[in-house]
User: Fold this.
Amino acid sequence: EVELVESGGGLVQPGESLRLSCVASGLTFSSYAMRWVRQTPEKGLEWVSGINARGNSSQYTDSVKGRFTVSRDNSKNTLFLQMNSLRVEDTAVYYCANQKTYYDVLTGSYKGSPFYFIDVWGKGTTVTVS
Amino acid sequence: QSVLTQPSSVSGAPGQRVTISCTGSSSNIGAGYDVHWYQFPPGRPPKLLIYGNDNRPSGVPDRFSGSKSGTSASLAITGLQAEDEADYYCQSYDSTLTESTYVFGTGTKVTVL
Assistant:
């Protein structure tokens, strides 16, 4: 069974740091690009960050650029999110998720990054900044 | 902040058909980007229901179907079952002159009466 398990959430004060981890099992972790997605009652679901399979390319939503860093250790099937200078508005449930594409029979090729979807989600870990 | 709009709630009796709309714009769904659908069941991890507008992953019952037209998409659930009670979200990609990012819908709570 494919499973993603997040950990590292908690209660911190504004300006402090947290490091989230996500351990993957049941899938070839090193073959997948991965994402962090967060959810709040006020803003709903928001893509936070992504990293490619090899770990040498990452992306961030504007609101976390310069404060959050995504990384991965493929030898340990683990994804990380280092969150620094945390703000009240970073309070959310953070989900770890893999990223997948699919083969388009009409074009005879795999779909590019704008067409990626999430195949597997973790249960989430709660971060509270207050 | 969500750029994709969904009804906040829909409900139906067991066995009925319900549909959930996902309304976007010319910078996302209308630009030709795919729509994907996810189920957020209470107490369990979210689950992929539909990818690429109308493709069902293996293991997802054929009671779930997706469609897309213009700047909107829809998820239909036929033969509604108690286990379908959950929150549902659409997702696409939004690209403007200033930013390109993955975007989600506002979410719809499905209640089985």
